[in-house]
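Lecture notes, continued. The same structure-token format from the folding unit now serves as the input rather than the output. Read the line below as a description of shape only.
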């Protein structure tokens, strides 16, 4: 059984959304200092690296990360390769050969290479357009993932984040920040484990893909 770990490693100098600092690890106890154990205080934004967006991220009063349906987070999952430069659209999805009944889809784009780039953040990442979000909801998809820090193009705030809002209103779980560079397109079993933070507006998640 081959397992792909597609979570980006949390580290202080990792690419983060503009204005957010990377994770910090501060020592609370250190054996080297005479303490009985090694214990650290870890601080990070809840949308750092590979992470889950729960509905409350864009829909006030909606479900938080501790209330996500675990059934959406585990199960069969299709990795789809997208090699173009435009946002992913409904038109493209309709022609992509995604089998009917697919409930979990991850898009592997050229974004996955950005995790190894020297830049702290790249605005020109590949994402979904609004038509793609509607297509996924209508197709019955329960979980959708992308390999950079947003599911929709940079600057979508000025038009009200329609991709996030469409998916999250429909209770579709969004995973952002996946590293899929070593994963081939095809069928896998996914395990996605966001932290169970009470009222959490997001959470980094260990995401594993098991080859079937
Ligand atoms: Zn997010």
């Amino acid at each position: 059984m081959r397992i792909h770990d597609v979570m980006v490693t949390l580290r202080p100098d990792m690419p983060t959304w503009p204005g957010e600092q990377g994770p910090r690890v501060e020592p609370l106890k250190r054996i080297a200092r005479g303490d009985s154990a090694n214990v650290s205080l870890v601080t990070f934004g809840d949308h750092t690296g590979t992470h889950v967006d729960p509905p409350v991220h864009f829909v006030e009063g909606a479900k938080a990360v501790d209330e996500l349906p675990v059934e959406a987070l585990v199960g069969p999952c299709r990795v789809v390769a997208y090699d173009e430069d435009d946002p992913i659209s409904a038109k493209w999805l309709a022609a992509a050969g995604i089998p009917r009944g697919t409930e979990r889809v991850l898009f592997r784009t050229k974004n996955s290479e950005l995790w190894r780039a020297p830049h702290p953040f790249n605005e020109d990442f590949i994402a979904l357009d609004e038509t793609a979000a509607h297509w996924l909801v209508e197709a019955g998809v329960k979980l959708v993932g992308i390999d950079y820090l947003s599911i929709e193009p940079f600057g979508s705030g000025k038009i009200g984040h329609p991709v996030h809002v469409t998916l999250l209103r429909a209770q579709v779980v969004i995973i952002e920040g996946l590293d899929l560079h070593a994963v081939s397109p095809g069928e896998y079993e996914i395990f996605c484990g966001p932290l169970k933070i009470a009222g959490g507006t997001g959470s980094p998640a260990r995401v594993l893909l098991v080859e079937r």
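Point for the exam: The first strand starts at residue 3 and ends at 5.
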